[in-house]
Write a structure and sequence with these properties.
protein-folding chaperone binding; alpha+beta; Immunoglobulin-like; PIH1D1/2/3_CS-like; dynein intermediate chain binding; 191 residues; Protein PIH1D3-like
C-alpha cells in the first residue's frame, strides 16, 4: 500500500471510484463495450506486412509444430497398440546416512526428499528370466521391456544414467534398479 501514500494518488483513486462529472461518465461508456479480444497490444493493421512475429518467441522453422524441448523424454517409446501389461512397480528415495547424521545431525540432512541422493525402482516381473530383460535408462525416463511386460516410466527426478546399477532377484521375481539422482544443487543439498 505504499503506492497510495500520496494525496494525489488518493484523489485519483477517488475520482476513478466515484466520477463526479457527466463527461467522465461518457468517457467510461466505450470501456463497457470492450470484450476479451481487446486485452493486450492492438493488432497490426491488415494493410501492412508484419515481418516480425507478434510474440517474443519466434520458431526457427515455421513448419515445425513444436520444438524438441517441448516433447517429454521417452514419448517415442509409447506404443498404444502394444497389448503387454504394465508390471507393478514402486519408487523409493534413498539417503546415505552415517552415525554422525543419525545421532548428531552434523551434516544437516533431514528426512525430506531434498536430501536423498539416489532412487530405487523395484519392478515385480513374475514368470520372467533375467536374460529376457531389456532395460534403457535415460535422464528422466526408464524403459523396461520383457516378452510379457512393458514399462515406460517417467522418473520423478533426473538421474545419472551411466552410474546406476540393476539386479534381478530370482526368489522374489523382482528387478531392483538403483539410480543416483542428478540435482543441480547437490553440493549445497548434500553437504
Amino acid at each position: 500500500m505504499e503506492g497510495l501514500a500520496s494525496v494525489h494518488d488518493l484523489q485519483a483513486l477517488s475520482a476513478l471510484l466515484s466520477p463526479n462529472n457527466e463527461d467522465e461518465e461518457e468517457d467510461l461508456q466505450p470501456l463497457a463495450r470492450m470484450g476479451p479480444g481487446h486485452i493486450g497490444s492492438p493488432a497490426a493493421p491488415s494493410g501492412k506486412n508484419n515481418k516480425e512475429g507478434s510474440t517474443a518467441y519466434v520458431k526457427k522453422y515455421s513448419k515445425n509444430i513444436w520444438d524438441e524441448d517441448e516433447v517429454t523424454e521417452g514419448a517415442h517409446f509409447d506404443d498404444l497398440t502394444d497389448p503387454r501389461p504394465q508390471p507393478e512397480y514402486e519408487i523409493v528415495l534413498k539417503q546415505s546416512v552415517g552415525t554422525e547424521d543419525l545421532f548428531l545431525g552434523l551434516s544437516r540432512k533431514d528426512p525430506s526428499s531434498m536430501c536423498c541422493d539416489s532412487m530405487l525402482v523395484r519392478v515385480k516381473l513374475p514368470d520372467t528370466k533375467a536374460s529376457d530383460l531389456v532395460l534403457d535408462v535415460r535422464e528422466t525416463f526408464l524403459d523396461l521391456r520383457t516378452p510379457k511386460y512393458k514399462l515406460g516410466l517417467h522418473l520423478p527426478h533426473p538421474v545419472h544414467k551411466q552410474e546406476g546399477n540393476a539386479r534381478f532377484i530370482v526368489e522374489r521375481e523382482e528387478l531392483e534398479i538403483t539410480l543416483p539422482m542428478n540435482r543441480p544443487m547437490d553440493c549445497i543439498n548434500l553437504t
